[in-house]
Amino acid sequence: MRVLQLSDTHLRGDDRLSFRVVDTRHCLDAAVAYVKNAAQKPECIVITGDLADSGDLEAYRILHRAVGSLGVPVYAIPGNHDRRDRMRDVLGDWCPADGTVAPYICYTMEDGPFRLVMMDTMRPGSHSGHCPPEVAAWLERTLAERPETPTLLFMHHPPFCTGLGVMDEPFENLEALAAVLRANPQVRLCCGHMHRPIVTEWAGRLAMTAPSVSMQMELDLSPSGGDEFRMEAPGCLLHDWRNGVWNSHVCQIPDRVTFAGPYPFADSVNPAE
To answer: What's the maximum distance between 2 C-alpha atoms anywhere in the chain?
Structure first.
């Protein structure tokens, strides 16, 4: 079983460049072509947030047509640049949310010897990560249902410190989330948001972030770092279930790579629903 993780497409629906610089529609097309031409195609795709730039309605339609053309199941969770209402309207088949924790888009995909758990860490109007008590309780209940089953937990915001100062914002209810993960050794944490691949250990669990399908964060490990990007190679993660374990591969998507920048993340908002 191969699970492809895409993240941070930041699509616009008005043919303008995201952050005044990036043709994110072109980047999406390159990612779709990469998957179509892959020697081993994924059995499903998970998109870990910031699908649209500033919650652009038409962007969700473009994304649905493009990624939907790959002919495999697709699952999505929101990031801070998304709008839940528009995701539900356009991408409802990609985010079958558990109504017991509404309005959060949280759900699971059960597939034989492993699980995919999707957790919504977005609060409208906020850039940082959130795990309110009702979401933490949902996660605790959900993981307790199959405690012996290897599980990939997908969420947009990483709860761990990355060293990219501006991006290392306070994460709501962090200790409650950490306590749930410490009690569940079957979990691997797979995040987005950081626009570059990072691997670490947090709350005793292997944790990682996916590169962006579009632009990559400038590697500036200072208090002011994490606020600019370069046009490095776009990428994704491929989680391959083999011999009872997950191998997570960092993949580069063939495209125009100039390393131009750094550029600021300009003209983008965290929309309020």
So the answer is: 47
